[in-house]
Amino acid sequence: MPKDFAKVQKQIAKKKKGATSSLHENSRDAKRLRRAGARSEKLEKLTAARAKAYQPFLQRTSFFQSALQDASNPFTTENMQALVQTYLDRNFTELSAIQSERRPGRPANTREEVLKQRISAEVNEYSSGFWMPDMADTGTLEYLRKWNGDWLSLNTLKFIRITKDGTKHASSFPPKGNS
């Protein structure tokens, strides 16, 4: 029994000879249509939520991909730390601009609060282990150059967690906690 809305609608239209608008409100076919519609809406919401959750990691990987276009050799740990620091500093200019526009004594607006939270979360992540592609590995560099921005194609890359003090350890994809 199909669960996709389009398939259910097609089956019912075939059964009723094209007239799906003439269904009784509580008929079996009307209930099937409602269930299939509710299921497709639920799946769309889940897909949108998943895409929203993946967005920061896609932006992060895209940043490292754009930084990679200039380099031809694998990165050292110091280079990767400098690159992570550049990534962390990307929001400070916008935050300082928002703070300078705000009159003294006024509460912070929503955008300012979001930026502060993001900055503090990323700094905390960097102290415990910042998730990033392993840019010291030549194979990962080649895959990262060819990466098309798709979430599923990230599983071909090797990822590491790098800390402020320079320690690196392998990480998994997708990122889970301090893996």
Strand segment tally: 3
Structural class of the secondary structure composition? Answer: mainly alpha
The mean pLDDT is 87
Model regions low in confidence, pLDDT < 50 over at least 5 residues: none
Query: Can you count the helices?
Result: 6
Describe the main β-sheet briefly: 3 strands, antiparallel
> Element order, helices and strands?
HHHHHEHEE
The global form is elongated
Alpha carbon gap, first and last residue: 41 Å
Order the strands across the largest sheet as they lie in space: 1-2-3
Radius of gyration: 24 Å
**What percent of residues are in strands?**
5-15%
Q: Into which percent range does the helicity of residues fall?
A: 55-70%
In words, what does this structure look like?
With 179 residues, the protein is mainly α. 57% of the residues lie in helices and 7% in strands. The chain has helices spanning 5-15, 28-68, 77-88, 92-101, 110-128, 138-146, and strands at 130-133, 159-162, 168-171. It has a three-stranded antiparallel beta sheet. β2 (159-162) and β3 form a beta hairpin. It is elongated and about 70 Å long. It starts with a helix and ends in an 8-residue tail after the last strand. The model has no long low-confidence stretch (mean pLDDT 87).
Topology:
Elements: H1 5-15, H2 28-68, H3 77-88, H4 92-101, H5 110-128, E1 130-133, H6 138-146, E2 159-162, E3 168-171
Antiparallel strand pairs: 1-2, 2-3
Key descriptive features of the protein:
179 residues; mainly alpha; three-stranded antiparallel sheet; 3 strands; 57% helix; 7% strand; elongated
